[in-house]
Design goal:
Strand content: 15-25%
Number of strands: 24
Helix content: 40-55%
Radius of gyration: 34 Å
Distance between the termini: 42 Å
């Protein structure tokens, strides 16, 4: 400990003695370590952090939760029906307890809290009564749900509030227990508060209220089916019994699932149904880290960014290693004296590594400050909505351990080789002249190797950045099929103010459209079930006179108002759109897109042809096709053309609430927003109206993961080039300084300044050329690893390669030119007297 304290004190004095070197090294490390820690913090929150529940390692999920919503497919393996869950829970032996949660959170619900007269937006999650007991979550206050709330359906209007909502809304008022919240026409009594650390089981979603699953019909009238085997919308979670392996549990789950599915079909499945069942396997997924759709979306992009920032940190380490090598040259007389006085080489290496560790610790500490700021910025970039997603990115044990390991490894990377080389030289010449063998060839070879490595890594990062940026540009230029410009999006919530699924609701929709459409500057407005990237409803269809084929696709369905296509800017190709003539009592009609017309009505005009929703042929005459519109994107800019059908809400108002409102406008958007609010208030002053941004912003948010990778890879790629150029500049400057006498002699003997310029520039260009030759094959290989993140590009994209090489060469030329130009300014007389 005495030696360590001595080394630390001496190291601090040496760093303080060279403030310029210390500042450059610490800032460089802070950028590298901070960037790594920030990306890792987001990765940790999404992928590595265990749920704050009892024994999370025993928790498993039926399926993968890659999909949500409701499905009527036979034997869906990600979502399940309530009757399936009820039977499954009673018969499964591998689980000590089982629970269910609705796969769709109600993020935009509006309710009235007791003591308030205004509607407030709330995030609501529906769960079974066994949810909290199975997770082992204890109430912070009051009581959580028990199994008793599962029966009867609709008989338990109670709610559990999250700690964060309780703190935000009630300032942790203990009298909240017993207060009520009115959601729709039902009043719920708050029975308990969850503990502070509990956010649920879905990472990135933090409900304000949990409602019993048995209240599904009251929460979502018209869109539920707790007693229907075909309404599959639940995630099912189980806790493994002690001693039961995942493999054993999966075997039992699949046997039981097959049995329950057959029973739901009456015990005698048809041949086609049996074939489906024979090929259906339920995959059990460990749920120790919860359920997260964000994980599927961002896990690979974040891993790519981790590799990127790790390479940037390596370049930073190479730069500092070069600085330490140059600094060691100036300290050789000091080192030689200490060795002559009896200091062992190992003792001196330890001293230099201590100095490196001090640098790394200072850089790591500053990097943690830097990461705390950037992590929130990254979270905002990941968020697809106007508000940041609910994700705890605060440092935990994983993050702190990562930062410490990064700091320690960084110190070894940039400190070990310079320390060993600084103490390996001929002692006698060093004592006589103050410099030894390290000052020439030995240091030069290693320093040049570091520069070559920096150039190669920089090229790899630049090529990747170019590919991601070009992919982002390609995505942004995709033909969406609709006109994204000058469209405002709003959300309404009729259920919150007591509207039922009846003609009064339809009249409200029509009045809203009429009042908004009459405002100056409004060109078209429409109510709809969905807008782009806000969910979808798919079903197979049965076409009159057509035999289904194995190539048939399910159809994307939307329910719309008469001016929907004008509001969205989707061109009509044939026939007509829906209109006032399409009433609740008139024959049912639909407008279809090009792909559906081509796939289901080939060989002639689809106008007047008929089809039905669902695969049952007896419904194939239900709906008449009255128009064909251009194909449009529905869920993603990457999606291939997909069949779609649009139905008037006047004929479908009993299905559910249609909360999307599109307004195409001209003029000042702020004025239009005010006009829309006023018009909706005239239709119903109590109706909640939320402004959701523009259609163009919605399209941009749909590619937030590609945008995150493209922007950050470009930033870190340019940072890598900048660091590599600093390395080239430093090496060439050092070479010019060491060769001052030689340059003076050459110029005294008649060498021209252009020759001196080329002599120095040639050396830097040689290093860059070698770096490019090393980096190009690696870059080509690395492109294959990220090919699935590219859009409209082949991995070996010549434009990206050429652009990266040109940018790197341009910066390298500048970095090499500056010291070369300084060499031409050397005064021969001064140079001859230099040493």
């Amino acid at each position: 400990m005495g030696s360590l304290i001595q080394d630390l004190r001496y190291g601090l004095r040496m760093l303080a003695k060279n403030p310029g070197f210390t500042a450059v090294a610490v800032l460089t490390l802070a950028l590298g370590i901070g960037a790594n820690t920030a990306i890792f913090s987001l990765l940790n929150a999404l992928m590595l952090r265990d749920l704050p529940i009892q024994n999370p390692g025993q928790l498993v999920l039926l399926g993968t939760a890659r999909s949500g919503g409701s499905s009527d497919d036979l034997a869906a393996t990600d979502v399940y029906s309530y009757p399936f869950y009820r039977e499954f829970r009673q018969k499964i032996q591998a689980f000590s307890e089982t629970s269910a949660m609705l796969s769709i959170p109600f993020d935009g619900m509006h309710g009235v809290v007791q003591g308030s007269s205004s509607l407030e937006q709330m995030h609501v999650q529906l769960v079974s009564g066994t949810y909290f007991p199975m997770l082992g979550v204890k109430a912070e206050m009051g009581q959580l749900f028990t199994e008793a709330v599962d029966e009867p359906l609709g008989g338990h209007p109670i709610a559990v509030a999250s700690y964060s909502w309780w703190r935000r809304r009630f300032n942790r008022d203990p009298s909240v227990i017993g207060k009520t919240v009115k959601l729709g026409s039902t009043v719920y009594t708050i029975s308990g508060i969850t503990p502070p650390e509990f956010f649920g089981t879905s990472v990135g979603e933090s409900p304000d209220l949990w409602i019993p699953l048995s209240m599904d019909k009251q929460i979502s009238p018209g869109w539920n089916g707790m007693d229907n085997n075909s309404f599959q919308a639940l995630y099912v979670l189980g806790r493994l019994k002690p001693g039961v392996s995942l493999k054993q549990a999966q075997a039992e789950v699949n046997v039981l699932a097959q049995q329950l599915w057959r029973e739901s079909l009456g015990g005698q499945p048809a041949r086609q149904q049996q074939q489906i069942l024979d090929h259906t396997v339920v995959e059990l997924t460990p749920a120790v880290r919860g359920i997260s759709r964000l994980r599927f979306q961002y896990s690979f992009p974040l891993l790519v960014l981790m590799v990127v920032v790790a390479l940037v940190l390596l370049i930073a380490c190479a730069n500092i290693a070069n600085l330490l090598l140059a600094r060691a040259t100036t300290r050789q007389r000091e080192i030689a004296v200490r060795m002559a006085l009896g200091a062992a080489r190992l003792r001196l290496i330890r001293q230099m590594l201590t100095e490196s560790m001090l640098l790394a610790l200072l850089g790591g500490a500053l990097g943690m400050v830097f990461s705390a700021w950037t992590t929130n910025a990254l979270l905002a970039m990941v968020s697809s909505g106007a508000e940041p997603i609910s994700l705890d990115v605060s440092p935990d044990a994983h993050v702190l351990l990562f930062a410490l390991l990064a700091t320690f490894l960084t110190a070894l990377l940039f400190g070990a080789v310079p320390a060993m080389r600084a103490t390996r030289f001929d002692l006698t010449p060093a004592l006589k002249q103050g410099r030894g063998a390290l000052s020439a060839a030995s240091r030069s070879r290693f320093a040049r190797a570091l520069i070559v490595a920096q150039v190669a890594v920089s090229l790899i990062l630049l090529v990747g950045a170019a590919l991601f940026l070009r992919s982002l540009v390609n995505l942004a230029q995709v033909d969406t099929g609709f006109d994204r410009q000058n469209v405002l999006l709003f959300g309404i919530d009729p259920a919150a103010v007591g509207y039922k699924l009846d003609s009064r609701l339809m009249n409200l929709y029509q009045e809203i459209e009429q009042r908004i459409g009459a405002q100056p500057g409004v060109q078209a407005t429409s109510i709809s079930f969905f807008t782009f990237n806000q969910g979808n409803w798919t079903n197979p269809v049965a076409v009159a006179g057509r035999t289904p084929t194995e190539h048939d696709r399910e159809v994307n369905n939307n329910i719309i108002g008469p001016a929907y296509f004008s509001a969205m800017g989707i061109p009509l190709l044939v026939g007509r759109t829906v209109g006032a003539q399409d009433t609740a009592t008139s024959p049912k009609v639909a407008v279809i897109n090009e792909t559906m017309a081509r796939m289901y009505f080939p060989g002639g005009s689809p106008i007047g042809r008929r089809f039905g929703i669902g695969a049952d042929p007896k419904h194939s005459n239900d709906i008449e096709v009255v128009g064909v519109v251009k194909d449009a994107k529905y869920n993603s800019l990457r999606e291939q053309p997909w069949p779609a059908a649009y139905y008037p809400y006047t004929q479908r108002f009993h299905i559910g609430y249609y909360n999307c409102l599109e307004v195409r406008y001209s003029g000042d958007p702020a004025g239009i927003i005010a006009e829309v609010r006023r018009a909706v208030g005239e239709a119903d002053r109590n109706l909640p109206l939320a402004y959701d941004g523009t259609l163009a912003e919605l399209v941009e948010r749909s590619i937030s993961n590609q945008s995150l990778v493209a922007r950050l890879s470009a930033l870190f790629g340019m940072l890598a080039v900048f660091l590599a150029c600093i390395g080239i500049y430093g090496l060439m400057s050092y070479a010019v300084t060491r060769r001052t006498s030689e340059i003076g002699i050459r110029m005294a003997l008649g060498a021209e300044r252009s020759m001196m310029l080329w002599m120095v520039m040639r050396e830097s260009l040689k290093l860059v050329a070698i770096g490019l030759a090393v980096g190009l094959p690696i870059a080509l290989g690395a492109q294959q690893l990220v090919s699935k993140m590219l859009f409209g590009l082949k991995p070996a994209d010549p434009i990206s390669l050429a652009g990266a090489v040109i940018v790197l060469m341009a910066f390298a030329l500048v970095a090499g030119y500056l010291p070369a130009r300084r060499a031409t300014k050397v005064d021969p007389m001064v140079a001859l007297r230099y040493e």
